Amino acid sequence: MELRIDRQAMVPVVQQIVDGLTEWIVQGEVAPATRLPSVRQIARSNLLSQSCVVEACERLVAQGLLAVRPGSGFMVASGLSARCGPAGYAVGGAGDAAAGLRLCCGVLPESWREPDDLSYAIRQVARTDMAGLFNYGTPLGLPALREQIVKRLKGLDIKVGDDQVLTTAGASQGLDLIVRALFKAGDCVLVESPGYAPLFELLRLQGVRMLEVRRLPDGPDTEALETLIRSFRPRALFINSHHQNPTGSSLTPAVAKRILMLCKAHDVRLIEDDVYADLHHGRGARLAALGDGHGVIYIGSFSKTLSSSIRVGYVAADAEFIAQLARIKTVSSLGGSGFCEAVLASLLASGAYRKLVQRLRQRLATDRAAALEALEDAEWEVFGKPAGGLFIWARPALADEARLHERARGCGVALSPPDAFSPSGERSDWQRINVAYACDPRARRFFQEGMADRPRVF
Amino acid sequence: MELRIDRQAMVPVVQQIVDGLTEWIVQGEVAPATRLPSVRQIARSNLLSQSCVVEACERLVAQGLLAVRPGSGFMVASGLSARCGPAGYAVGGAGDAAAGLRLCCGVLPESWREPDDLSYAIRQVARTDMAGLFNYGTPLGLPALREQIVKRLKGLDIKVGDDQVLTTAGASQGLDLIVRALFKAGDCVLVESPGYAPLFELLRLQGVRMLEVRRLPDGPDTEALETLIRSFRPRALFINSHHQNPTGSSLTPAVAKRILMLCKAHDVRLIEDDVYADLHHGRGARLAALGDGHGVIYIGSFSKTLSSSIRVGYVAADAEFIAQLARIKTVSSLGGSGFCEAVLASLLASGAYRKLVQRLRQRLATDRAAALEALEDAEWEVFGKPAGGLFIWARPALADEARLHERARGCGVALSPPDAFSPSGERSDWQRINVAYACDPRARRFFQEGMADRPRVF
Prior knowledge:
The structure is a homodimer.
Chain A: H1 13-27, H2 39-45, H3 50-62, E1 66-69, E2 73-76, E3 96-97, E4 100-101, H4 115-128, H5 130-134, H6 143-155, E5 165-168, H7 170-182, E6 188-193, H8 197-205, E7 209-216, E8 219-220, H9 222-232, E9 236-239, H10 253-265, E10 269-273, H11 287-290, E11 296-301, E12 313-316, H12 319-333, H13 338-350, H14 352-377, E13 381-382, E14 391-395, H15 401-411, E15 431-434, H16 441-449
Parallel strand pairs in A: 6-7, 6-9, 9-10, 10-11
Antiparallel strand pairs in A: 1-2, 3-4, 5-12, 7-8, 11-12, 13-14, 14-15
Helix pairs in contact in A: 1-3, 2-3, 4-13, 6-13, 7-12, 9-10, 15-16
């Protein structure tokens, strides 16, 4: 197996192996349960270290493309359609490796990242902050950082006190703590469909049952929501209020108020995941702002803007619940990394973070407008035009799923698996398009390719 | 309430507030459920920011000294003995704040930390490693770091392949992932008594029942172990094989072999937590080495030696189980911090880490010998003389618990609560002594104080 590794590329070698193996599985239409050549063989024939090959294989196991059988190495996953790309929530930030442009990617391209301010802040903390260098983080998080977060929330009309904010290692830890604090196996919660795949996995891990609410361009379908609430008495609703992943859509104030009313009336806990908040100029309707602190649990993050490696997110909620999360955080992580928090606090205090998000918003706005135009030219159907965030949700006139993925590969574009965003694994021909990748010529060619197949067959 | 805050001290202000409040609760013998003055009042009268006061109170909530009631602020915890100090597993690394010398502390004093190499490695990664700065960590962890870990394990006679090591955010995440992967509510496991309090909390959080095995100076009591295994069929045994927390004792080869045999015969999973491994020159009997990879899950960490803030630990086990942990790690943390892992990999590759642990071992050996001598002079009973690690477990001739804590306060020394290391909350007059604090004159005075009360009353 030859993998075409480019050691000069910005893309890490492991990601290139992941992409190469994905290509081998997907384009080669390899049958499920087919054994991979041995790690040693792959490493030798491509002049790679075995540990890089193992790492790449493990990523593909985590993504569900490969399976592992002890003693007999890696094989193509048996539940896998031979025609799907890498998982929709692939965690790597790699841009354009061998297997194609990551048009479906969930984070900013590496080429968009700005190292200067971050690197400076890191060096400052490393030079001057003994506590940041050595100590466990504190249960609630660094006071200086939490003060900055309280100020930022005020800017979104979310009024919280000092004892109502807890820092986390990215929003992921926030979601994890909340799920562990609130639910036990057999509990039932509402999630949006399409929605955020790692949340579905997390709920499955805890044995929590999911009820799907269709996401519409102005928020979750409130009629369906009411029916589900009345029928199943779910304990909570998870919602991406703004620039939702994957649809890019945002709550309108009317829908937000209706949701708040429904949830309050039926004692449904609201968990508002707002990790894309900083990728938009405007204010918008936040449940945590409208709810006036009553029962809404709010999640924020700096991973989508600053860095996914310096992992800092936060949860804002009532003080009692925050204290409960702090206890689980202490027990499960001994407080997290004070270093990452000190770096963030410094970037927030100096204004460097504010300027960074201004530049990102500007650049995303330009690319988003261009991407929407390109999609319109190519007669794709767009699911509500997003005003901020990273994603556009759209589908081509060509409705045949297999054909679509074949065309994408032909254009050097990687798409999400058709079932990547559905809590129940339902397949869809809608695509999550990361606007930061959408101006690449490969993406443009891919958008246009479908034109040949019109008129659309329903 | 006046807190005596010293803004020039090395000890962070929040830690000073924690210590001051602890002193107020403990020395003032405040009744359970007594309300604290309001956060605003405490902040004003001590010229502190409210967020620092809240953070300190939250730490005390996490430690079980304070409770929070929404709307009415903080109060002294109702289940609390008025005579106990800060929790045994207090996560702060603070040294000698107002409330006293942290003789019971679980980590190295800040004054022992060596910032130069760590700071240099951080600055190098910040300057040169774009992937480390920005990307999510990978499911198994950075390949370069895992290669180094495999080499280090070989030095302990633990032979594992590339696909058998997973990095974690400190050993805490390792324990957390293992508990989530293996157990469900109602399961039953074996833990050592005395033992590591955060593990007990973690197991309680998951609803796992604990069976206590007494820790003896050569390892767990194997007779009791066999009886418990035959009677209750527990699913696993958690064990600190070397320099155990809190007793400082290590497994002998004979006990290790007996444990392996018992656990293999009765299908009990062995989880070997070896986070103090680097604080000792010798090799010693590791279950993971003797077990030859069969079923032993091994946990390591760099938090005890290098930094608790640059959080890196690892788990070594069979490849299938490691892949299972990697999936939970991905879902619950999106892979962790690539930055911290890149820093560790650089320090391991350059040899700086090896030299650091050599210096630490030397310094600890000197202080340990001096502490053992001082305890012998003062006629304390010592639980087996440890040959490595951070702790000595000992008790004074004076057996009255209340008197002991009173004397400690009089000498400016903070002790663990009497029930800090027992899974079932049993009280004990044995003390965990951090050898790095034991040469402080306050500790010496405290050791000697008991002499007046001899002969010991049984």
